[in-house]
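User: Let's play a game. I give you a shape written as C-alpha cells, and you guess the letters that built it. Ready? Here's round one.
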C-alpha cells in the first residue's frame, strides 16, 4: 500500500502480531475458505474441523491456547500469509476506523503501524482506496466480515 505522491503511508505494518490476538474476529468468507483450503491442501470439512468454528452464522478462525489466531507464529507472523483472510488483509482499514475518528484514535493505541500524523481524513482516503484496489470490500454481511461492509456508492 502506498500514499499518493509524497504523502506518507497511513499504515505500515510492523509485524507485531497484536492484530492476531484475541478470539472471534477473524471471519472467513467463502472466497477466503477456498483460498485457505487450497493453500493448506485440505478439503473444506477438514479445514473447518481443524481450524474454524461457527459463530453467529459465520465461519471464524479459532484461537490457539495462547489466545492468538491459530495460524499466528511467534517471531514469524502469519503462518498462512499468502492465503490469509480478507479481514486480515484489510487491517486496520475497518469500517469503524474509516468512518469514526474516535475509533481510529483508539486503534492507534493498539496498532503501532498506524501513522497518526496524517490525520483521520487521509487515513480514511488511503484506506478506502486500498480496500477498493484490493477487492476487499464485503458485499454480503451474512457471510463476510461486517468490518469490511462499506457503502462506497455515495
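Assistant: Ready! My guess for every position:
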Amino acid at each position: 500500500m502506498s500514499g499518493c505522491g509524497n504523502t506518507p503511508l497511513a499504515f505500515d505494518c510492523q509485524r507485531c502480531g497484536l492484530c492476531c490476538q484475541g478470539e472471534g474476529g477473524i471471519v472467513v468468507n467463502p472466497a477466503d475458505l477456498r483460498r485457505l483450503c487450497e493453500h493448506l491442501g485440505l478439503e473444506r470439512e477438514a479445514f473447518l474441523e481443524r481450524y474454524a468454528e461457527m459463530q453467529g452464522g459465520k465461519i471464524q478462525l479459532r484461537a490457539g491456547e495462547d489466545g492468538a489466531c491459530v495460524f499466528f507464529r511467534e517471531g514469524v507472523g502469519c503462518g498462512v500469509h499468502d492465503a490469509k483472510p480478507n479481514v486480515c488483509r484489510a487491517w486496520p482499514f475497518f469500517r469503524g476506523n474509516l468512518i469514526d475518528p474516535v475509533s481510529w484514535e483508539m486503534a492507534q493505541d493498539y496498532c503501532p503501524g498506524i501513522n497518526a500524523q496524517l490525520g483521520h481524513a487521509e487515513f480514511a482516503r488511503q484506506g478506502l482506496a486500498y480496500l477498493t484496489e484490493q477487492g476487499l470490500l464485503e458485499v454480503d454481511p451474512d457471510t463476510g466480515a461486517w468490518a469490511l461492509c462499506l457503502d462506497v456508492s455515495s
